[in-house]
Amino acid sequence: MNTYLRPALSLVLLMTLVTGVLYPLAVTGIAQVAFPEQANGSLVRDAHGQVRGSALIAQAFEGDGWFHSRPSAGAFATVSSSASNLAPSNPALAERVTTEADALYQPALGPVPQALLTTSGSGLDPQLPPEAIAYQVPRVAAARNMPVERLQALVDEATLRPLVGPPVVNVLALNQALEGSVPAK
């Protein structure tokens, strides 16, 4: 029995050391050298060096003077990140979307973009399509007493146009640029 047990335990300990300690340390070390910003969470800092968030995770912005992210089923908490898992036929989803649409609707702009009404798959998507940002421009401009053209220039600067896929705007980066240009009321 000892001839089988000792090699088996030795192998378990060796594999635990290799896969549970050495490999994670090697991958972490390589990531810190090759991709330090991404390995540390793609943190976004303000002018004073304070961490304001991550470029990869959405957060809630309240008040008319800020661009709002898309809704989050998990209240923007990374631990409970998930979609709402409500089917399109679910009355609770229809009620939530209708309530949100009524609250955001601006007659002069037409229907509210879907990205402002529905959650993303993770509930933490930090980007919005430019159409969803454009829908918010008049509200933010009025709240900040700022010319729409100046605000649109900030939006254009913050719009990312990837090689593949549609253009997107990171809401945190846009709000940070907005904070640097005109104080919120």
Automatic annotation (TrEMBL):
UniProt xrefs under HAMAP family: KdpC (MF_00276)
Functional description taken from the UniProt entry: Part of the high-affinity ATP-driven potassium transport (or Kdp) system, which catalyzes the hydrolysis of ATP coupled with the electrogenic transport of potassium into the cytoplasm. This subunit acts as a catalytic chaperone that increases the ATP-binding affinity of the ATP-hydrolyzing subunit KdpB by the formation of a transient KdpB/KdpC/ATP ternary complex.
Transmembrane segments: none
Organism encoding this protein: Pseudomonas parafulva
Membrane-protein topology: Single-pass membrane protein
Lineage: Bacteria, Pseudomonadati, Pseudomonadota, Gammaproteobacteria, Pseudomonadales
GO terms, molecular function: ATP binding; P-type potassium transmembrane transporter activity
Keyword DNA-binding in annotation: no
Superkingdom field: Bacteria
Keyword hit for Mitochondrion: no
Subcellular location as annotated: Cell membrane
Protein name: Potassium-transporting ATPase KdpC subunit
Any Gene Ontology CC annotation: plasma membrane
Homology family: Belongs to the KdpC family.
Assembly and binders: The system is composed of three essential subunits: KdpA, KdpB and KdpC.
Alphabetic keyword roster: ATP-binding, Cell membrane, Ion transport, Membrane, Nucleotide-binding, Potassium, Potassium transport, Transmembrane, Transmembrane helix, Transport
